[in-house]
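Worked problem 6 (solution included).
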Amino acid sequence: MLKEIRKNKKSVLLLILSVLGLVLIRAFEDQLFYDPFLQFFKYDYQNKPLPVFDTTKLVIGLLFRYALNMFLSLGIIYLLFKQLQLVKFSAMLFIVLFVILMILFFGTLHFLEQPDYLVLFYLRRFLIQPLFLVLFIPAFYYQQLTR
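Solution. The predicted structure is:
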């Protein structure tokens, strides 16, 4: 194992930097992104009204954060599996899932008089956290094992 790591020093370093990038996005989320729901969902939010938000700023903030997470995730997938096909497939999934999640998130916010906060919480969670990476890596690994 150590021989493999020594042989692929550059890949291991890039992998560590990519994961560090994901951590830094999370660590500096308050400063980097417009998201009034960060504070709203940190505390007891069940009995509070939704925060006031600027839809355009929120869309741009979510898009920017999702894009950063997506590019770092795609880099991690490439570094782990070294298959451009998987990266292309993952990119398509990321884009399709982003569109679906954004439609559901803003549809829930704007078209329901009293939206379910738990649904909003989890839709937003998938938009702002690299959860798809956590799902894709085991799936792609299992796929390689079964080939």
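Discussion: The mean pLDDT is 90.
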